[in-house]
Structures are given as C-alpha cells and as structure tokens.
Please model this.
Amino acid sequence: MNTNEGTIIEVSDLVRKFGDRTVLDNISFNVHRGETVVIMGGSGCGKSTLLRHMIGSMKPTSGSVRLFGEEITAMKERELERVRLRFGMLFQSGALLASQTVGENVALPLLQHTGKSVDEIEEIVKQKLQMVGLTGFEDLKPDEISGGMKKRVGLARALALDPELLFSDEPTSGLDPIMTAVVDELTMKLTHGTHMTAVVVSHDMTSAFRIATRMIMLGHGGVVAQGTPDEIRNSPNPEVQQFIHGEADGPIPLNLSQEEHEDHQHVKPRPFLGARDRFHRKTA
Model:
C-alpha cells in the first residue's frame, strides 16, 4: 500500500522494548508535506529513540515506519542509504569533524554521494553557508567558531543535498535566547520558503511554539497529546500543562520513591545491592 502523496512519514503501532522495559508503546502518527512537527516530552520519554527509528538507525520490536511511502524497518543498509539521500539530519551537537574546515564539513555529503566537480561543490558550499548566515567562514575550523555557529554549519551540511525532509535533534540545546531565535528563524525560512518538511525533537518550549505547525508530546511510552500549537496550549490534559509551563508540581513526578519506581508500568527495577555486586564482579 502506497502512502498518500501528501504524507511524508507514517509511524504505525511502533513498539520498542529494551529487555522488559517498553520505551515506545504502540505509537502512531503521520507527518505531512510542508509541516514542521515538534516532538516533545520530558527527559527519557523516548523522543530520541523515536527519532532513531524514523531515520532507520534503530529497528523496532514491532510496528512500521514508512518514509516517502517506503517501509524502512526491514530495509538493508544499502536500501536505507538510498532513502537517506532524500532527508537531512541536524545532530544535537552539530557533529562536525574537528579535523576538517567548515567548508569541508559542508561538502562531505556532496563528495560522498554526488559526482559533482570541485568547482560545483565549492559553489554549493558557499550557497549553503550563505543560507545560514555564515558567508566567508569556509576556511575556519570548528574550534574557531561558537556553538551557535557550529549548529548553523551542521544545518548547512544537512541541506547540502537539497533534501525534502529535515530531522533536527534538539537544535537549540545549549544556545542563548538570541541564537535560539536565529536557528528557529532559519528553520521557518526553510519550511515556509522551500516547502521542506521538518521533524524537530525539542524540550525548548519557546522554540517549539515558535516553529511548530503541529506538536506531539510523548510520555509513559506513548503519545500523551498531539495537535496544533494552539490546541496544545489550551489542552485540558494536566500533564501537558505542567510540561509546557515547566511546573515542578503536577502529575509528572519530579522524583520517584523506590515503591513508585517498582510500580511503574515500564520499568523493571534493579536493586542497588545487585548493581553493586555486579560492579564488584566486573572490577575485581
């Protein structure tokens, strides 16, 4: 069955277990062409795990992930590489190669996946750096630029092959408010100007509400809520309200007692004594 023309990603009944612990529990949603979908939730809720399934770097316990109408969960690496040429990935740290210049980092996908000449690649690198506001930075090394600039170089590299879809993992993490706004503005220009589709994993609520056309909140292994920014902002769900307002008191616990931990539906506790014994055996 082929996906609808306007549907870029289909996640259906996705389950991921690590031993007895269920991290993703029957998650289903679609992402449509031109949307900016923000996936949010507390630390450890499965955001990054879900992202890894969508880019094909992790296989589910069960369920389906379709990109551009193709089921990727059973694909071999060579097949996945073909699909990955259609999307870009902005990693949380920027993931730049420290030994290479800014220009060489941006050129990397072009060198690996195209037969373009050196002159053509240099011109594309200049264009992509201009898009992210870093004209003339080609010859600098990553350790010579700021954290925010590294994020923008990572974005330029993610855009090198003119992808239809952009995945971003915590793109504003560690940035000051001004640089956060700059990265958000770049994301909005791309999605509005080129009709690119974006999936952004974030717990930065200011950024999320600024860029999202739709939001999905994860919790307890599943989807707690999804909707437009206004629908999320006005959600009657107390977990949603606690999270988006950053409140310590609410249904999402700040701390768990040992008893609560043992009763949690997704956690199989390992007593500290047992862990200590394992540690001693390993280091003895």
Summary: Strands lie at 7-18, 21-32, 36-40, 62-67, 70-71, 87-90, 165-169, 197-201, 214-219, 222-227. The CA atoms of residues 95 and 171 lie 12 Å apart. The two ends are 56 Å apart (CA to CA).
